[in-house]
Amino acid sequence: MEAEPALPSDAKAIAEIHVDVWRATYKDLAPKAAFDALDVTLRLRQWQGALDESASASGIFVLRDAGGVAGFTRAQYDPEGPMDGRGEIKHLYVAQARQSRGLGRILFAAAVQHLNSIGAPGVALGVVDGNARAIAFYERLGGRHVGKYIDPGPLWRSKNLIYAWA
Question: What ranges in 6-130 are assigned the alpha helix state H?
């Protein structure tokens, strides 16, 4: 299986995976107000807007299998963002039923390749403090904890750890 640029027609599947995995991951970490605000309609608008851009330029990639979209990632370079000048993997989600099959590694590699192709000096991401499963995954991929920041939202001000590669 290989990651490929997302298409506008993938927006609904991406939104559904995003909400489903987010709710399962953050059920014990996020405040109730965040859960009340998050739904597929909200995320669908977000992903439709993101996919109106050129998918490869915006760094959004999906994995497809016989069941449709199995996961997605988004990577971008914002030198002013919290990643200390590195390219950032903004999202990396694998559908719950398809987790622990190596798909996260494929998506991670696609995000890194995209950031390298646009000249980002290094790769980093933020992971919510307390998301032990993700932290362990990123450490297995060689990520180093290099800092922290408060994510302003849109749903809640979460405490995040920064993991970086190079």
Answer: 11-26, 32-37, 40-52, 55-58, 103-117
Q: Has this prediction a pTM greater than 0.85?
A: yes
**Residue 53: pLDDT over 80:** no
- CA gap 101, 127 in Å, rounded: 21
- Indicate the length of the chain as a whole number: 166
Q: Do β-strands 68-77 and 87-94 pair in parallel, antiparallel, or remain unpaired?
A: antiparallel
What residue ranges in 85-157 does DSSP mark as E strands? 87-94, 123-128, 144-151
Distance (Å, rounded) from C-alpha 30 to C-alpha 64?
29
Beta bridge partners of 124: 88, 164
The H or E element containing residue 140 is: helix 132-140
Gap between the Cα atoms of 96 and 49, Å rounded: 25
pLDDT at 114 over 90: yes
- Backbone torsions φ then ψ of 59, nearest 5 degrees: 70, 35
Alpha-carbon distance of 48 to 84, in angstroms, equals: 29
